TrEMBL record, chains A, B:
Its cofactor is Zn(2+). The lineage of its organism: Bacteria, Pseudomonadati, Pseudomonadota, Alphaproteobacteria, Hyphomicrobiales. This is Fur family zinc uptake transcriptional regulator. Binds 1 zinc ion per subunit. InterPro entries: FUR (IPR002481), Fur_C (IPR043135), WH-like_DNA-bd_sf (IPR036388), WH_DNA-bd_sf (IPR036390). Belongs to the Fur family. One of its GO terms (biological process) is regulation of secondary metabolite biosynthetic process. GO terms for cellular component: cytosol.
Length: 142, 142
DNA sequence: TTAGAGATGTAATGTTATTACATCAATTGC
DNA sequence: GCAATTGATGTAATAACATTACATCTCTAA
């Protein structure tokens, strides 16, 4: 089984981690996830990191590099352009509110293309692109 | 003294850290910098982090979020659009070769605008934007 | 039924970043 | 001059994030 387009069957640990992230309504660090899952038998960081690796590979979870934290993917399945990253989209971008910690996930074709064009012009072969906007969301900026 | 447009006078520690990054021809972690500067009297991480904070604030150094590492800014002074981030540019983007660790710093008006437009449409007020493309540079992809 | 692959559990360690507290030097206002 | 403030520095300790190493275990395909 490789690079499934639809959600694959998850292992127990993967399902627990994914569920925790879905309930969270915001990004969580690996160690926060670990704490949430202690009641379910989790005892070591590696259990979380292994599950996160897989979920990320499946495109079901994203890592926020500027936060060292993780969020469940907010895209609906089959939405918009199928990309190299499985699950149904190309590069995703994030707007992260530094006040309320809310994260907006979005996709922007033009940005995607523009960066792709730059890469092509330089002979650079992208494997993963990170776009994160830190700032204040509408509510918090008011 | 606040938010200088030209390079401010650096303190001894700031100058040492900046110099180390300039010589490096590639990103360095804070602890790598620390090791390089032990001969110059550095003994603790905080000495490095404090200098990096200031240099970043001055726009002379960038943090690569996906690497937890730092690079000296590759822009010439006075080049292109003066932005909110001092030093003479708006958002910068990075292409990071995962094979040879070379980093290309660039600026793309269209991407900048496009993300700005998205933010405006959502009422989001950006403070800092991260754009990092991981992949293989032309040489390493060949 | 056994060899391989993948998932799991656990401990230990490595790497990155911050908090807390003390000191020192330059500047400002009196 | 000389407090008072501000900013830079030094040091130790700790917190936060992530990986390596090794031992099982379970399923499945030959």
């Amino acid at each position: 089984m490789n690079a499934p387009i639809v959600s694959p069957a998850l292992t127990k640990n993967q399902a627990l981690v994914f569920d925790a992230l879905n309930r969270a309504e915001g990004p969580m660090s690996a160690y926060t996830i670990l704490d949430k899952l202690r009641d379910h038998g989790f005892r070591a960081p590696l259990q979380v990191y292994r599950a996160l690796d897989k979920l990320t590979e499946f495109g079901m979870v994203h890592r926020l590099e500027s936060l060292n934290a993780f969020v469940a993917c907010a895209h609906r399945e089959h939405e918009c352009c199928g990309g190299a990253q499985g699950h149904g989209h190309g590069t995703v971008a994030f707007a992260i509110c530094e006040s309320c910690n809310q994260v907006m996930e979005f996709h922007d074709h033009k940005v995607d293309h523009q960066l792709g064009d730059w890469a092509k012009s330089k002979g650079f072969k992208p494997s993963k692109t990170t776009i994160e906007i830190r700032g204040l969301c509408e509510k918090c900026a008011a």
